[in-house]
Amino acid sequence: MNLTSLDGVLLVDKAPGMTSHDVVAIVRRALNTKKVGHCGTLDPLATGLLIIVLGRGTKIQDLLMAEDKEYAGTMTLGITTDSQDADGKLVETKPVPDLSREQLDSAFAKFHGDFYQMPPMVSAIKKDGVPLYKLARQGKVVERDPRFVHVYAHEIKDVRLPEIDFRVVCSKGFYVRTYAFDIGNELGCGAHLKSLRRTKSGKFTLEHSVTVEEIKTLDPRDIESRILSLPTVSRMRGA
Questions:
Q1: What is the location of CATH 3.30.2350.10 in the chain?
Q2: Tens-digit pLDDT profile for residues 159-204
Q3: Which CATH architecture has domain 8-66+204-237?
Q4: Which residue is catalytic, options 13, 43, 85, 182?
Q5: Does the predicted model carry a pTM greater than 0.85?
Q6: What are the pLDDT digits (tens) for 90-116?
Q7: DSSP 3-state of 114
Q8: Fold exhibited by the domain 69-200
Q9: Catalytic: 43?
């Protein structure tokens, strides 16, 4: 079955251990269509909402990528890694003090509203045309330009030291693993991102998403029925 004229948006609940490009490849194969892209990269460690655009939907890719995101995550205090998440190599361990809720609230509050964030070396940002993560693999550390970002809302969901569960609503280009790293530094013991789940992007949520396993196993027509048409996407965005 050749479904080459599909246009619209497919909301995918990304599984852990795969890249966003892996998901694109799986969708291409399942629907036998070439014009497929994704909006807002999720690291292999992360799960949750990945917006897949198909056909003419690729023309609104930049629009969808520019929207705010919401994440639920867990950071582990006392351990820093070279990638700032659990997939990286250990850099340093420090004892975690018996932190009060007031100290935690104060550290999180420092990273609310407008501020500058230094992109991690293990990222897809390019320096002289070369992705930073490729330079990082060679053991190189280069100067990066800080990025202006915004946190609209944050919440400490649960504290089980050394772990903290949190929620954050942030702007485009925000690195949640750097957020965990910076809060760890503010607390004086360091931290890394243990797990991350994207729960929302713009007006889109996981409610109407399809899992990667479903994409692999469902009849292509069933997946096609889950694709949001461009007029539907426009109405959802209030455009």
A1: 8-66+204-237, 69-200
A2: 999 999 999 999 999 999 999 999 999 999 999 999 999 999 999 9
A3: 2-Layer Sandwich (3.30)
A4: 43
A5: yes
A6: 999 999 999 999 999 999 999 999 999
A7: strand
A8: Pseudouridine synthase (3.30.2350)
A9: yes
